[in-house]
Amino acid sequence: MEAVIVLSVHLLFVILFFVLSYKDLVTNSRLMLALVVFIPFVGTITFLVMEYFLRFHVKKARSIFSFIKDKADKNEIMVKDDNFSDYSTLRSNNISSDDAIPLEDALVMDDRQMRRHVMLDVLMDSSGNHAHSAIINKARLNDDVEVVHYATTATIQITDDFEKKLINLAKKYKEAKGEERFSVLDEYINTLEIYLNTGILQGNNLRIHQETYNQLLAERSNNLNDIEDYEKLANSYIKMGQFNLAEIIINEMVELWPNSEHTWLTQIRFLTTLKRGNELHELITRIKNGSFYKSKKLQEIIEFWDY
């Protein structure tokens, strides 16, 4: 009788956490539900403890981000360094971003104050396009603790923005019909592509988004038959280590566009990744001896691999 009661309570916890997870009311990854299912009670306690820490740290990071934003909006950031002041003047005078110090350059400067200010300036960018996302992600490895702190805070905000946008796009794509569906598909793919290229995504979350990206690319390539989509899809499969699928796409490219630079570059990338030296040499020789236009980029690759 006691065993039945214990099992019933365990099943109630499992159902409860599954419902909360699929309604996105918990912060934990759905993979963590395995703990609840396979380790009765202890797994539930572990799940709850992790949920608490995740919520606490995310909330803390967002509050820090809001605090920094409020300070910047109220011009409360005080500057002592002359270079730091000059940069503030440049921004306040609406000087073009082309004339300002790029974030990537600022991060390798010896001037800590300048580094921090440029980082803050990027954090306060309200455009929402996240053009600096990849650099901000790299900034988390900076030797300046304060820059790392800003970068980590920004990364949480960027991730949150992308995830919300992708949820909305997935819903729009599911409901869209006709020409609108193709328009939403383009936006969905472009957003995923930018998100994946930031380098922020890791582990299982990266794989899930990359698989979604592959599925959407495959759907668009079937409709439009565009060589760039084929190339992106093949490269994505190569990156994920799904070489059989990559080879299928490359074979289709060879059949549809046998003399395209996109096809050759994708083949070269595939063969070098798999270290198929003999096949690579044969391909390079064939391209080199072919009587067709070769771009500067392709010529440089041929010279590099021609041995």
Task: Give a verbal description of the structure.
InterPro entries: TPR-like_helical_dom_sf. With 307 residues, the chain is mostly helical. It has a domain at 1-73. The chain is 75% helix and 0% strand. The protein has helices at residues 2-22, 33-38, 42-73, 82-92, 103-106, 112-123, 133-139, 145-175, 179-197, 203-224, 227-240, 243-256, 261-273, 277-289, 296-305. α11 runs parallel beside α13.
Estimated radius of gyration:
25 Å
Mean pLDDT: 75
**Count of β-strands:** 0
Q: Main beta sheet: strand number and arrangement?
A: none
- Derived structural class: mainly alpha
The helix content, as a percent range, equals: over 70%
Shape call: extended
Q: Can you count the helices?
A: 15
Can you write the helix and strand succession as a string?
HHHHHHHHHHHHHHH
Strand content: under 5%
Poorly predicted residue ranges: 71-101
| Separation of the first and last Cα atoms | 77 Å
InterPro entries: TPR-like_helical_dom_sf (IPR011990)
Keywords: Membrane, Transmembrane, Transmembrane helix
Transmembrane segments: 31-54
Q: Brief overview, please?
A:
The chain crosses the membrane at residues 31-54. The chain is mainly α. 75% of the residues lie in helices and 0% in strands.
Write the layout of secondary structure elements.
Elements: H1 2-22, H2 33-38, H3 42-73, H4 82-92, H5 103-106, H6 112-123, H7 133-139, H8 145-175, H9 179-197, H10 203-224, H11 227-240, H12 243-256, H13 261-273, H14 277-289, H15 296-305
